[in-house]
Design brief:
Shape: globular
Structural class: mainly alpha
Family: Belongs to the major facilitator superfamily.
Radius of gyration: 22 Å
Membrane topology: Multi-pass membrane protein
Number of strands: 0
Low-confidence stretches: none
CATH class of the largest domain: Mainly Alpha
CATH topology of the largest domain: Growth Hormone, Chain: A
GO molecular function: basic amino acid transmembrane transporter activity
CATH superfamily of the largest domain: MFS general substrate transporter like domains
Organism: Heterobasidion irregulare (strain TC 32-1)
Order of helices and strands: HHHHHHHHHHHHHHHHHH
Number of helices: 18
Number of domains: 2
Oligomer: single chain
Distance between the termini: 24 Å
Subcellular location: Endomembrane system
Length: 491
């Protein structure tokens, strides 16, 4: 399980540090957010489904299935010939990735006493952070040396090792023995399918609006479809599904909803910051992909420290409310510092790193404490589903944060470029600098300076969006309900 957690973490930061190189090589830099959102699309839809599937089929079979699909997706990513194939491959990998972290967390909920779970979650997060720390520079180094494809292919042998180790070493009680047809009837495939379509419609609408026009017919149709599909999803989960993967009692319970919203907003904020800090390092500071990867390491260290400390504090005190509010206050401060030191006030690489560390300490600890708050407030029979739904909100936060952030960035960048560039070839320059960072270096110095300044100001708009998201996470944390943590038992 440790190997799978490590890989899931490494996969995220490998992409964060190398996506600019991928987009530039494929001449699709303006669409690189789809590399992440394609993965998160299926991740978000399948994470809560794994909660129900693991209740029905067993934790171990579902975990092995997740590893197999993830390995297949990574292989396809390494062999992709264009951006479309890469996005499809990332979506397949996301189906597997959805189970690699969710099921491990559910297994922990099964076997670890509630009061000690924060500490164990912190230890798992150390593994997660180690994978993230390895992935950030590794992705950049591979992109700068032998090619970005190896950032995906290198994960395949490790995933195979995880399959073998889990098959041999993981011993869990057998689940109920019923016919396959009866088991499948209990799975909410309809809800998952409609959720995928709804998120896809939203992403298409935001992408089309940001890159083409908000008055475009496809943009309007996509956003309208999103509204309709969202309503249908709510109907399925509340009225039609016999065993919904996001039951109404789990989602709308005020004691749980506050934690879900914290998860949504904090992950949306942190993913937006990390994704676009990497672009800032490469597009504005003109550094390499490897440098972008190294720049993310302090934030990863901050995340693991926050998570571990959060677990220890909860184990020692048996409380989480005040600490959770403090975590998100720290995150707000961190995102503001990042914004101030990337051009809003000054350009300071050291200041940016300090902001990233503060943001990640608050985010990492907040993720741990809100998970424990969820488990403490959910009934014993709902802990697996509540945990899976928390991962759904995190993934939705990633998707929405990156998608809206990308739309905001592309709109602002295009606006500034058209305002500041002069000459007959303006449209060509605007088109090509949004396709590839490599083209920027081919421009005349004066034009290059305008392009980099436009990138900087577009990034500022995106960073301020992340600040707003972190403030919403802080506000949501005020409504979390304190409940005593037990030394033993599940709840």
């Amino acid at each position: 399980m440790v190997i799978g957690t490590f890989l899931a973490a490494m996969d995220g930061t490998i992409v964060a540090s190398s996506y600019a190189s991928i987009g530039s090589e494929l001449h699709q830099l303006q669409n690189t957010s789809w590399i992440a959102t394609g993965y998160m699309l299926t991740l978000a839809s399948f994470q809560p489904l794994y909660g129900k599937l693991s209740d029905i089929f067993g934790r171990k079979p579902c975990l092995i299935f997740a590893y197999v699909v993830f390995a297949l997706g990574c292989t396809m990513c390494g062999l992709a010939r264009n951006m479309t194939e890469l996005i499809v491959a990332r979506a397949i990998a996301g189906i597997g990735g959805g189970g690699m972290t969710t099921i491990v967390s559910i297994i922990m909920s099964d076997i670890v006493p509630l009061r000690s779970r924060g500490t164990w979650q912190g230890l798992v997060n150390i593994v997660f952070a180690t994978g993230s720390a390895a992935g950030a520079p590794l992705g950049g180094i591979l992109a700068d040396s032998i090619g970005w494809r190896w950032a995906f292919l290198v994960q395949v042998p490790a995933t195979i090792a995880a399959i073998i180790s889990v098959s041999i070493a993981l011993k869990l009680p057998n689940r109920e023995d019923s016919h396959l047809r009866e088991k499948l009837k209990r799975v909410d495939f309809g809800g998952a399918f409609v959720l995928v379509l709804a998120i896809l419609a939203l992403l298409l609408g935001l992408d089309r609006g940001g890159n083409i026009s908000w008055d475009d017919t496809i943009t309007i149709a996509s956003l309208t479809a999103f509204a309709g599909l969202s309503a249908l999803f709510v109907l399925i989960e509340t009225r039609l599904a016999s065993e919904p993967f996001a039951p109404k009692r789990i989602v709308v319970d005020p004691a749980l909803l506050a934690s879900y919203l914290c998860n949504f907003f904090c992950v949306a904020s942190s993913m937006t910051i990390i994704f676009y800090v990497s672009l800032y390092v490469q597009a504005v500071q003109n550094r390499s992909a490897a440098n972008a990867g190294v720049a993310l390491i302090p934030s990863i260290v901050g995340g693991v420290l926050g998570s571990l400390i959060g677990g220890l504090v909860m184990q020692a005190t048996g409380k989480y409310y005040v600490y959770t509010v403090g975590n998100y206050a720290c995150m707000v401060i961190g995102t503001v510092v990042v914004t101030f030191t990337t051009g809003a006030i000054v350009h300071s690489f050291a200041g940016m790193e300090i902001g990233l560390v503060l943001m990640s300490i608050g985010n990492g600890s907040g993720i741990t404490t809100t998970l424990i708050a969820l488990i403490a407030n959910a009934g014993a029979g709902d802990q697996a589903v509540a945990t899976a739904v928390s991962y759904l909100f995190r993934s939705l936060g990633s998707v929405v944060g990156l998608s809206v952030g990308s739309t905001l960035f592309q709109n602002t960048l295009r606006k500034y470029l058209h305002e500041r560039l002069l000459g007959q070839d303006v449209d060509e320059i605007v088109h090509r600098v949004r396709e590839s960072l490599n083209y920027v270096d081919q421009l005349e110095p004066a034009v290059r300076a305008i392009v980099r300044t436009s990138y900087e100001e577009a990034l500022q708009a995106t960073f301020w969006f992340a600040v707003v998201l972190s403030v919403l996470a802080l506000v949501s944390s005020f409504f979390i309900k304190e409940k005593p943590l037990l030394h033993s038992g599940r709840d």
